[in-house]
Amino acid sequence: MTPVISVQNLGKKYILSHQSPERYTALRDVIANGAKRTLKKFRHPFAAPENDEAHEEFWALKDINFDIQQGDRVGIIGRNGAGKSTLLKILSRITEPTVGQISIKGRVASLLEVGTGFHPELSGRENIYLNGAILGMRKAEIIRKFDEIVDFAEVEKFLDTPVKRYSSGMYVRLAFAVAAHLDPEILIVDEVLAVGDAQFQKKCLGKMEEVSQEGRTILFVSHNMAAVTKLCERGMYLSSGMLSSTGEAENVVKTYLQDSARKADIQLSERKDRQGSGLAKFSSVNILDSTQRTTESVMCGQDITIRIKLSSQTKGLTIKNPIIAIGIDDSKGLRVWHLSNESTGQYFSGIDVSNECLDFRIPKLPLVSGTYTMVLFLASNNTIIDWIQDAASFNVEQGDFYGTGKLPPPGQGCFLADYSVRMIAGHA
Amino acid sequence: MTHQHTLLIKAGQTERHYWKDLWRYRELFFFLAWRDILVRYKQTAIGIAWALLRPFLTMVVFTLVFSKLAKLPSDGVPYPILVFAALLPWQFFSNAFTEAGNSLISNANMISKVYFPRLVIPASAVIVSFVDFLLSGIILVGLMLWYGFYPNWRILTLPLFIFIAFAAAMGSGLWIAALNVKYRDFRYIIPFVVQLGLYVSPVGFSSAIVPQQWRLLYSLNPMVGVIDGFRWAILGGNTQLYWDGFILSSSLILLLLITGIFYFRKTERRFADLI
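YS: structure for the whole thing
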């Protein structure tokens, strides 16, 4: 069988401009630069043309090759900025590749965002037609599926209300409902399930499963590893624009999680996407279990330590009055916990960067199972020294938090805490 | 699934199915126009009356300034009708030019999230202006009834001139829309062109007052041909069409349209990266 999607040597290059924060060009700059260059040519007619040092090439995707068979459900995972969205944008023809080619058989519908083209002033009814047309549906098709869409979105009562008066839940439901009734042969979905309430998310996943059972192909990008493993049988792991692993979804997810855990230790000092004065840098963050050994995954209820090391170009540097904070985000990007020595009131007069590290001790880890990422923050006397988003990620496995031999039910609640139940007699 | 067509995306190669796609998305084109009209009339208090009030007031002011104060000739035609016959295509052009020029930027979100032939967006902006044009046509009919001024057979040629006005609006609109994505400076150029264009086009006066030796040069402004054509068709009677100038203007419009489509097609593949 020939694949429905076949990608060969795909690459996408962006030119990063360091001069202006905006992506577009100002005509004034073009004219000014052109004039400058011409003038230079007059003065040094034999000089080799120099490269514009303000521009830097950046390959968002490079050497991507893969085939997807009909009916495959493929989960695409990777860190932020790994090129997932760029890949989807190229597959959905929003942007063109710099090199390589793709052949796609069948009608593609892509859902990179829910409610694209929704107009707040228009009513739900009007927006269904508009959004349907934007997603490539015919008018007759929209009319035919109209009732089904309204039913799925559960907005019958508000059909003639402008969507600006909708709650965000209703808005998302309506938007997804339109998209879900597209009937494409290939469906491309980006992270849209991250919105909406749990019940609706379940409904969306159900709809996608239904779609794939009809022999259609689904490409699904998500940070939610649970959703990826549940919905997809195949996985693709993108890392810095390259395809780093493909295969069975569960294995790919595992590779990804191990990879991100391992990367944390090696790459932190090399990372460039950081803010702050740079006087000192976070060089590593490790999670230690109760035996003080570095670990990649921990269990709920375990005693753990987060160990943070710093480094600096300046020898023998001591940072006065350091404030070190860790933000812990769940797989949906929700900040679930914030830890800092400021919150606990443990102030230090100084930290010797080359000699000392900082341990955050967490007895009985209260996080439920899932993947978490850490944001690291270092400041001293109101100056931010180093600040890294997504500094590291770690996996929390289900564990016997309450020490009863029973695991807390998965998917119920987002934190764990000690409590007790007591029966009181003679109260009723 | 037997009806599948294979789509080939290759670096540096434009879509082969482009025109077919454009046809497939023809409904989107009307939906977008419909959205813009709907939204406009939902948001403004006087709604649809706005499309009538604006050209009407402009006509009144122009008649006062050019006829009563400047005492310009009108070839025996009531001056308000002379002005309005030109104001119709001019307002259509200037609205379409402005709307189309900004259309890609204001729909940036759609461009970066969904695929469809981008040509749909400026084209539907031109359509919206065309609806306004048809509405303000009512005023012209009203004026003609009021003055008892009736057109002759030449009115039947009006669709041709409307078509030329359409081409002018579309051609320049495509150019400016595509340039505006890359160089945002053009958003300042648009109102300037529109303002200046009103004075260098024969809207408030008849182009017959331009000295004969300058008329060909004057026709380098494409709107001169369009406006003269409208007057010739609507006013009938003594109005003469300066054919050399008209042909020059029309050829320029054709050139504008062809290069506009060409430039738009060439740049549209990168819109999503730039916008």
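YS: worth flagging: The longest helix of chain B spans residues 79-106.
IM: good catch. Also The radius of gyration of chain B is 20 Å.
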